[in-house]
Every structure is written in C-alpha cells, then in structure tokens.
Amino acid sequence: GDAMSAAVSGAPATYYNPAGLLSPQGTSTSQLMFMHKEWIQDTRVEFLGASIVLDEENAIGFSLNSTTVSDIEIRTRPGTPEGSFTARNFSLGASYARSIAEDLDIGITGKFLYQKILIDESSGFGIDLGAQYKTSVENLSVGAALANIGSMQGLRGEKTKLPTLLRIGPAYTYELDGINSRFLFASDLLYVIPESKTYLNAGGELLFNNTVAARLGYQFGSEGRGFAGGVGFAYEIILVDYAYTHLTNNLGNTHTVSLALNL
Predict the structure, then answer these.
(1) Closest alpha carbon to 91 in 118, 58, 119, 124
(2) Could you tell me the pTM of the whole model?
C-alpha cells in the first residue's frame, strides 16, 4: 500500500525513509535488493539498493533508481512517425542513518539526478530527510520523511520541479503466537507539495513463520490508483516479493518484482 515511513527497513529505506537503515530485517546487518516495475504503458522502473549497518548507532546505504519510457514516436508533421526514442530519468544516492536516542533514529540521503528527453538533458541534486520513533506503546512506531528537496537545471529553458513530498504515519505489529504468525499494519499521510495534493496510504501484511507473507493495500484520494496486493517468500538469506496494483481510467495494471539478499 506504499505506507512505508514507519515500516520500512533495510535497502528500501534508501528510497522511502533513510532512518530505516538502522532497522535491518531479521538479524542481518546488510541487505542488497533489486526491483523491477512494469508501470503505465511502456514505463519501467528499476531500483538497486544496499544497506550496511556499521554498528548499533550508524548505518549507510546506496541506491540507484532508473525510470524509462520507451518507443516515444517522433513527429514534426502529421503522418508516419520519423522514428522513436526513449526518455530516461536517473538518480544515484548515498544515505546515512544514526541513532540519536534509544528510541529515535534519523537519516539523510543525497541524490544526483539526471534526465534526458531526445537530445535535451539536465541534471540536479536532491536531499531526503527522515526519522523513525519507537513509541512507549509496545510494537508501535511512527515515521516521517521529507523527500526530493532540491532542484534541476533547465531542460530547454524549462526547469523541472522535483516532486517534493512529505510522508508521515504509524506502523503497528501484532504477534499471532497461536499460528506462528505476525500481522503488520501501516498507514501514511502523503502530501505532494508542488501539486498540493494529499493521499492516504494504508496496508497490512500477514507473515507466517517468517517465510510466507501476504499483503493488501489501498491508496485513498488517488484518481488512478487504489487496490494493491502482493506476496513474499523468504528462504534463508533470499527474499522474493511480487506486487500487483490496479489502475483506473484504462491505464492498465502494474506488476512489481524484487529480489533481496540478507547478508
């Protein structure tokens, strides 16, 4: 359900909330993850991330995020296309997280940004800030992240506005000892600053025997997104996940697969 500010840990924290680098999954201190997403039409997203916990108070992470839109037709006049091209957006990030109190972790990510559309290109820099706090209520934590603070150079005279956004929300874990399972519920209030739009993301995960996970989520307030579902499997150090999202307005459906290694 994309509700990750408090729930995220390991390599995905380099994208959602860098403070989560200090909450590695299981007993691992390092995680490597690759993700592929088939998005709207011919849009594809690739993510490669890594998290390394240095000690109980410090962790670092690295990430590479690439979005491509292929087979865009070139036309200078009505009629047959003169060719096609691929538009690319790319970011390369480095993250750092530190525990500043027994129950409070903070993090920062610095990103180099690049985009190219046909022969036009531009670059820029962005910063993400995040925090995760374990509350006095057992198994309840809250998280907040302010992402994409920065700017891009002009692209043929037009500056690209970064999608600066704020995520804030809780995550609660409940142990189901009778069936050797754990239930996680998380939600995020997502505010996209340039568009002044607010969304509410919510999701749940049922994890059985630390091996098989079933997930459901929903994004409220979106005109195109809504229901999402997925499954995950863990075997020793290997994690495999799949997610499906239904899009409205004839935008199709999206599929996401990821492979992670706990090292």
Answers:
(1) 124
(2) 0.90
Count of beta carbons in the 10 Å neighbourhood of residue 154: 10
* Nearest residue to 130 (alpha-carbon basis) of 113, 145, 148: 145
Span 22-71, pLDDT tens digits: 875 444 578 999 999 998 877 899 999 999 999 889 999 999 999 999 88
CB 45 within 8 A of CB 66: yes
Q: Residues for the chain: how many in total?
A: 263
Cα Rg, the chain, nearest whole Å:
19
Classify each residue of 162-173 as buried b or exposed e, where b means 16 or more C-beta atoms within 10 Å of its C-beta.
bebbbbbbbbbb
3-class DSSP assignment, residue 6: coil
What would the DSSP string read from start to end of 82-100? Answer: -EEEEEEEEEEEEEEEEEE
